[in-house]
Design brief:
The chain is an all-alpha fold and 311 residues long. It is globular and about 55 Å long.
Length: 311
């Protein structure tokens, strides 16, 4: 690699800085335009804006989404990872259509929308829907597309594509209408896993995820430290799923970075590997000390002021 022309550390860090919706949309659209300069983003932008409104509590009939792990930056992480992966797949020789671009964008934007609570569902944070949130998201997607009069034929393939992010299902269980929809499911499922695990505050945010799981009475974790200790096993299972169920399609991200940054790197995998390497340091410390090395984002301080809501 030519070090003189390689991306700066700031450029690499910015890949995973997705808290600003306007910046995230600008990044995504610039990538999509590399696939097709004439792509019409109208439908995708409509969904994008409405999903932002739901997260912020500005969408009719819905409360603000209060889950702290499955929050708006998480959705934007997955959204951008999917767009980059879609571009990598395209550059590698598997050409994608405009409708397929739109479907991937909709699926990632809506994959966690099932955490949204209807007005009147005010108890808890929405984490009580941990086991059902993906199917709730599918139900929302079908109502939404019908209300907005999206083109017929969008909803049916979108259902299994969104369900590709459901951890309670294996990918072979899903019923896709054709192999192209199956390819999009692999992209979306891969982006959900790699997008979140590559986040630079992933380890800190696991403390939020522990609180969500505790609220949902999900998992067998004794405490947050125990969950971090078990994350290494989750990582190993995730790699197996990425390789065996999603056919290692994450490797196509290298094509994206080669085309956009001129380097043969897969920055998502590199970031994940750094997170997991640091995790080894974290879990080597006892429960009294481990929080002292989780310093990003002010997350530790915030978790210490929270309690699990009553259902």
């Amino acid at each position: 690699m030519d070090l003189k022309n390689s991306p700066s550390s700031e450029e690499i860090t910015s890949l995973f800085a997705n808290s600003d919706p306007d910046e995230a949309w600008t990044k995504a659209l610039s990538i999509v335009k590399r696939i097709n300069p004439d792509y019409d983003p109208t439908l995708a932008r409509t969904v994008f804006d409405d999903v932002i409104r739901i997260f912020r509590g500005e969408y009719p009939g819905y409360c603000t989404i209060k889950t702290l792990y499955h929050n708006l930056p998480h959705t934007l992480d997955v959204f951008l990872c999917a767009v980059r992966l879609l571009h990598g797949v395209h550059v590698s020789g598997t050409r994608v259509t405009d409708d397929e671009i739109t479907m991937v964008m909709i699926a990632t934007l809506m994959h966690d929308i099932g955490y949204a609570q209807l007005l009147g569902e005010d108890s808890g944070t929405g984490a009580q829907f941990t086991l059902s949130h993906v199917r709730r998201g599918v139900e929302f997607m079908r109502r939404y597309l019908a209300d907005k009069q999206f083109p017929p034929g969008f909803a049916d393939p979108l259902e299994p594509i969104i369900l590709s992010t459901d951890p309670s299902l294996t990918f072979p269980q899903l019923d896709f209408p054709d192999e192209r929809a199956r390819l999009l499911g692999k992209i979306v499922g891969t982006a959900d896993l790699t997008g979140q695990m590559a986040n630079r505050t992933y380890l800190e945010k696991l403390l939020f995820l522990y609180l969500e799981f505790k609220e949902a009475n999900f998992g067998n974790f004794q405490n947050a430290h125990d969950m971090l200790c078990q994350t290494k096993k989750f990582y190993d299972k995730t790699l197996k799923k990425l390789d065996e169920e999603y056919d290692g399609i994450y490797a196509k991200l290298t094509f994206h970075f080669k085309d956009t940054l001129g380097v043969d790197n897969n920055y998502y995998l590199e970031s994940i590997e750094k997170n997991i390497a640091y995790l080894s340091k974290v879990i080597s410390l006892d429960e009294a000390e481990y929080l002292s090395v989780l310093k990003r984002g002010g997350i530790v301080e915030k978790t210490q002021t929270l309690r699990v809501p009553n259902q």
